[in-house]
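README, section 4: Worked example with a bound small molecule

Sections 1 through 3 covered apo chains. Here we extend the same pipeline to holo records, where the ligand is supplied as SMILES alongside the sequence. The molecule in this example is calcium ion. Nothing else about the input changes; the structure line simply encodes the ligand pose together with the chain.
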Amino acid sequence: MRLGAMIAMLSLAMPAAAQELPMTREGLASALAQYFAGADRKGDRRIDRGEAALGYARSLLQEPRDIEPFLMDIAPDGTPRLSLNDKGPLSTAGMIDIAYQLADRDGDGLLSLAEVQAAGAAAFDAADKDRDGILDERERQAATEKLALFRKALSRG
Ligand SMILES: [Ca+2]
Ligand SMILES: [Ca+2]
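The generated complex, written as structure tokens:
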């Protein structure tokens, strides 16, 4: 679960196509900085949940939507919670939510650039098996497969 969620974080940094994982640690850092600057609509150097989703959604405008979405609603005690369609795939919104919670290390409900970069670097290192700072074809393939398995596992509930 933890590894899958870190890969979800990595997917947050990805441009439109899911296959295009940033190939170097440096490339990921710069992709994340770009994502962050684009998502921070209020310009307060923090991104909130809505900004994170919007920032990601903008990069995914051309991607087909999941037919049966992953839903977020409000639990009786007032906290947001995720609900899964037991037959549906995990949607982008669900992936963002999981990645968001993981990245928010100080738990203030907002993401700083440092938190985003740290989560991205951790996800990169998990995928970079030989630790050379580059995701080669095989490492990228493995990360992509894990992401698919992660979505599948969650969609089964
Ligand atoms: Ca935070
Ligand atoms: Ca490598």
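What to look for in the output: Residues 104, 106, 108, 110-112, 115 surround calcium ion (ligand 1) (CB under 6 Å). DSSP finds six helices and two strands in the chain.

Section 5 describes how to batch many such records.
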